TrEMBL record:
<keyword id="KW-0406">Ion transport</keyword>
<dbReference type="InterPro" id="IPR051535">
    <property type="entry name" value="Siderophore_ABC-ATPase"/>
</dbReference>
<dbReference type="GO" id="GO:0005886">
    <property type="term" value="C:plasma membrane"/>
</dbReference>
<keyword id="KW-0472">Membrane</keyword>
<dbReference type="InterPro" id="IPR027417">
    <property type="entry name" value="P-loop_NTPase"/>
</dbReference>
<dbReference type="GO" id="GO:0016887">
    <property type="term" value="F:ATP hydrolysis activity"/>
</dbReference>
<feature type="region of interest" description="Disordered">
    <location>
        <begin position="249"/>
        <end position="271"/>
    </location>
</feature>
<keyword id="KW-0410">Iron transport</keyword>
<dbReference type="GO" id="GO:0006826">
    <property type="term" value="P:iron ion transport"/>
</dbReference>
<keyword id="KW-0408">Iron</keyword>
<dbReference type="GO" id="GO:0004553">
    <property type="term" value="F:hydrolase activity, hydrolyzing O-glycosyl compounds"/>
</dbReference>
<dbReference type="GO" id="GO:0005524">
    <property type="term" value="F:ATP binding"/>
</dbReference>
<dbReference type="InterPro" id="IPR003593">
    <property type="entry name" value="AAA+_ATPase"/>
</dbReference>
<dbReference type="Pfam" id="PF00005">
    <property type="entry name" value="ABC_tran"/>
</dbReference>
<keyword id="KW-0547">Nucleotide-binding</keyword>
<feature type="domain" description="ABC transporter">
    <location>
        <begin position="4"/>
        <end position="240"/>
    </location>
</feature>
<dbReference type="InterPro" id="IPR001579">
    <property type="entry name" value="Glyco_hydro_18_chit_AS"/>
</dbReference>
Length: 271
């Protein structure tokens, strides 16, 4: 059974639709990445899945139930979201930030426990933040801050993670570390992951499925090799490119066909 479902969903801002009539299922235990040009609705759809944006039409379902009718704490135990550019309150340490991921599991009948401490300690180690755990989040580099926010959602231990550009501010080595961590969490814990990524090569390498958005809807949906085709890249991104197997993983690798001078010439003399 799908974990998340969009049925006839219309999403937008100020009465302007970005996506209209979206029907999409997110299967349990998979890594799904939303791709597409800037402004196509990737983050908008992720916000709707995370209950940060209400559809103007249609329904979002979580585990078969209307998302809007579920209680916030119950949703937070089943769904964790990392939005774009989150901001921590001044003076918050990395450890304090990560500890907030345990809030959905707390209640008057269940205070903080040694098990919560163990989760926080493990997540800090997994994200490479143990050595800076007592520093203020605002004192960290951009890459460390991003990893701190990822640690927060991992500490939540929700069976479904929504990650909006989780590799923002990270150099390539740390991008790979984060995506390996996401993939490991998926494989070892069976966590369902929905991500937004801009790097198509990394999206193909670390995803079971790609959903390409554009023109107000879904342009393509399937395995990376089924989605990343030259005709789709031209339609979704206006990019003339070849798709070849990655020599390391065999997953699709996108190679732009034009150098800068050829692209400028085509723009000056369109067909």
């Amino acid at each position: 059974m799908p974990v998340l479902q969009a049925r006839g969903v219309r999403l937008g801002y100020d009465k302007r639709a970005v996506l209209d009539g979206i029907d999409l299922d997110i299967e349990a235990g998979t890594v799904t990445t939303l791709v597409g040009a800037n402004g196509c609705g990737k983050s908008t759809l992720l916000k709707a899945f995370g209950r940060l944006l209400d559809p103007s039409a249609g329904t979002i379902l979580l585990d078969g139930e209307p998302l809007r009718k579920s209680r916030s704490r119950a949703v937070a135990r089943r769904l964790a979201i990392l939005p774009q550019s989150p901001v921590a309150p001044a003076g918050t340490s990395v450890r304090d930030l990560v500890m907030r991921g345990r809030n959905p599991h707390q209640s008057w009948a269940r205070p903080w426990t040694p098990a919560d401490d163990a989760v926080v300690t493990r997540v800090l180690a997994d994200t490479g933040l143990a050595q800076v755990a007592d520093r203020a989040v605002t004192e960290l580099s951009g890459g460390q801050r991003q990893r701190a926010w990822i640690a927060l959602v991992l500490a939540q231990e929700a069976p479904t993670l929504l990650l909006d550009e989780p590799t923002t501010y990270l150099d390539l080595a740390h991008q790979l570390e984060v995506l390996r961590l996401v993939r490991r969490t998926n494989r070892q814990a069976g966590t369902t992951v929905v991500m937004v990524l801009h790097d198509l090569g990394l999206a193909a390498r670390y995803s079971d499925r790609l959903v390409a958005l554009g023109e107000g809807g879904v342009l393509a949906d399937g395995k990376p090799a089924e989605v990343l085709r030259p005709e789709l890249l031209l339609r979704a991104f206006g990019l003339r490119a070849r798709v070849v197997p990655d020599p390391v993983t065999g997953t699709p690798l996108v190679l732009p066909e034009e150098d800068e001078s050829a692209a400028e010439a085509r723009e000056q003399n369109p067909e």
